[in-house]
Design brief:
Blueprint (H helix, E strand, L loop, with lengths): L4 H8 L15 H8 L8 H15 L7 H6 L6 H9 L5 H13 L11 E10 L9 E5 L4 E14 L4 E9 L17 H14 L6 E4 L1 H4 L2 H9 L4 E5 L4 E7 L2 E6 H7 L6 E5 L5 E11 L6 E8 L10 E6 L8 H8 L3 H12 L11 H24 L1 H6 L4 H4 L1
Parallel strand pairs: 1-5, 5-6
Antiparallel strand pairs: 1-3, 2-3, 3-4, 6-12, 7-8, 9-10, 10-11, 11-12
Helix pairs in contact: 3-13, 6-13
């Protein structure tokens, strides 16, 4: 779990967090972090505004839009900050690549082989019709369809750290001139595959790809993962049909919920999952075949009660991992790692202003999202290296300044 950004704000500005401060009041660790990106920017003004934007995101302002970032700091102009976000000539993708290179350059923060790669998307409500990507679509944080924007992201978890890797704006067909026929319209699974390819191109090789049912139900997406020789564990819908061996020479095509209901209670094994609140689950593993995918896959049925009729929550998961590895314990413990991307969304939206901005065009939106990820990584970096705790945790305000 990260330091709470509120704690970080207190640590950086104990007497007056970010309100009416100047950029020179930031501690040395902040400027050293920013210096790692300086060569990407062409001018001194861009380097200054990079620090202003990042410092504003890390501050304790209730809102993180451009107006508020400028208002809460001395010597920061709204127009200069907006020019930096909208018109200035710099590459947000270079910033993102450098961010990951910085993480990979240190022993404590290095990205190892064999991590879990989490693919997910997250939306937030947005009013109006003029922001790129906006449209009426399912917004997970409110659990219903509304006007808003959706991001597709890839995320890393290696047992020690949780880190966002890449982000892409999903452009709803309603936001494009030619709708689904527009050249810029790309479906979420295609966006996700593009982000996965970026990860592989960097030489980062995941042990498992974790996906929800929105991707797990897409056989073409699963096939593309297998073509990349990737192992996956993904949710599937209860109405997904699978082929099950009834006898040695006979198969039956059945919905997974009907299959779960037909299983005897002895087919389920009790598994205790140690989380913040311990959970007891009942899991059955069955080998099945899926149309358009050759060979057998392991289907896991996970219930919150020992019998189908008693259960109020039943999940279905599919994996192409070797059957000998797929145990009930492995399924629930591995898929539980997906919670880390939800932690990222919650903290990035709640503390770093991921869903707050005053820009409309795709490039400006992407710049904001990547700068938020850069601020998030600043916290992860110092948490793992111990820099903030070692340098400032036991010093008085007078000692810090």
């Amino acid at each position: 779990m990260l330091y709470r950004v509120s704690f970080l704000g207190w640590l950086l500005f104990p007497s007056n967090p970010m309100k009416e401060t100047v950029s020179t009041a930031m501690p040395p660790c902040f400027d050293r972090w920013c210096q790692r990106f300086d060569d990407i920017f062409r001018t001194k003004a861009q380097r200054k505004e990079f620090r202003n934007y990042l410092g504003g995101l890390l501050g304790e302002s209730e809102r993180k839009n451009l107006s508020q970032l400028a208002q809460n700091a001395v010597d920061v102009s709204y127009h200069s900050l907006r020019h930096f976000a909208v018109r200035a000539n710099w590459s947000e993708q270079e910033i993102n690549e450098r961010r990951l290179q910085v993480m990979n350059s240190c022993r404590q923060t290095k990205i190892p082989h064999g991590f879990s790669l989490i693919v997910d998307d997250s939306g937030h409500r947005k009013s109006g019709n003029f922001t790129d990507g906006i449209g009426r679509q399912y917004i997970g944080e409110i659990g219903k369809t509304d006007n808003g924007i959706v991001l597709v992201t890839t995320h890393l978890y290696d047992g020690r750290k949780s880190l966002p890797l890449d982000v892409e704006l999903y452009q709803h067909s309603n936001s494009l001139p030619e709708g689904k026929k527009d050249p810029e319209f790309i479906k979420k699974p295609e966006l996700a595959l593009n982000l996965i390819d970026r990860t592989l191109k960097r030489g980062y090789y995941p042990k498992i790809v974790l996906i929800d049912a929105g991707y797990g139900n897409n056989s073409s997406f699963l096939l593309e993962l297998e073509n990349r020789q990737l192992k996956y564990l993904g949710g599937i819908a209860k109405n997904r049909k699978v082929a099950v061996n009834i006898t040695k020479d006979c198969q039956e095509i059945v919905r997974v919920d009907e299959l779960a209901q037909s299983l005897p209670s002895e087919a389920f094994r009790e598994v205790k999952l140690e989380l913040n609140k311990p959970k007891t689950l009942w899991v059955a593993i069955i080998e099945v075949e899926i149309s358009s995918l050759s060979g057998k896959r392991s289907l896991a049925i996970v219930m919150n009660q020992p019998t189908f009729n008693e259960a109020t929550n039943i999940d279905y998961f599919l994996t192409n991992l070797e059957a000998s590895v797929v145990t009930p314990e492995w399924v629930v413990e591995t898929y539980a790692q997906r919670n880390w991307v939800e932690v990222f969304y919650r903290e990035a939206k709640g503390w770093l202003g991921l869903s707050e901005y005053q820009v409309r065009h795709k490039r400006s939106l992407m710049r904001h999202f990547i700068l938020v990820m850069c601020a998030y990584t600043f916290i992860v970096w110092h948490q793992l290296t111990g820099g903030l705790r070692r340098r400032w945790a036991f010093q008085t305000v007078k000692d810090i300044y």
